[in-house]
Amino acid sequence: MTLQCLIAAVFFAVAGWAGGVAAQVPLTTAATIAQNTTSIAVAIDGAWARASVAGQKATGAFMRITARQSLRLVGTDSPAAGVTELHEMKMEGDVMKMRAVPALALPAGQTVELKPGGYHVMLMDLKAPLTPGSSVPLTLVFQDAQGFEFRQQVQVPVATRAVPAAHAPAHQH
Ligand SMILES: [Cu+2]
Question: What keywords tag this UniProt record (predicted)?
Fold first, then answer.
């Protein structure tokens, strides 16, 4: 297949997909979906990944996510890690256990916090130690109520602890 032919095929696939979406959902929703690709629908703040040392295989990334419309976080990916998963830490009896979860619900307008001891993005099979002061790209995959998926990339600062939030809503008086 020539490159030109490949581009044409991709364009056709995208055009066909866009037509399908427009046919299934009201026009206003289709417009919102179109905007999603430019990262408007989801606000992410306070993101940080815990620094790791040489030989350490895994670490966690944390952030606050606020979706304008009801969405689910259904996937994560980072070039810094061989495997990237969404995890949850939970007490089972008196033991803190960590497990992979397939998706995280993001109710419209509510801030969902990924934090140590709770939900987090697990970066496993690290390709190099995460050094404080550097940052790692992280791709989040969201799915809306219609099953439409879109991706948002975040540049996550590496730190040894949570970045103090200058605008944390919990501390306004
Ligand atoms: Cu984990």
Answer: Signal
Distance from the CA of 88 to the center of ligand 1, in angstroms?
6
For residue 123, how far is its CA from the centre of ligand 1 (angstroms)? 8
C-alpha 43 – ligand 1 centre gap (Å): 23
Contact in structure between 126 and 59 (CB atoms under 8 Å):
yes
By residue count, the chain amounts to 173
CA 35–ligand 1 middle distance (angstroms): 32
pTM of the model: 0.72
| Residues near ion ligand 1 (Cβ under 5 Å) | 87, 98, 122
Computed over its alpha carbons, how large is the radius of gyration of the chain? Answer: 18
| φ, ψ for residue 129, nearest 5 deg | -60, 145
Write the pLDDT tens digit of every residue in 3-30.
443 333 333 333 333 333 333 344 444 4
Q: Which helix (H) or strand (E) holds 11?
A: helix 3-24
Neighbours of 48 (CB within 10 A): 20
Domain 41-163: which topology? Immunoglobulin-like (2.60.40)
Query: Cα dihedral sign for 79, 123, 76, 43?
Result: negative
State the distance from the centre of ligand 1 to the C-alpha of 150, rounded, in angstroms.
Answer: 23
Ligand 1 mean position to 4 CA, how many Å? 43
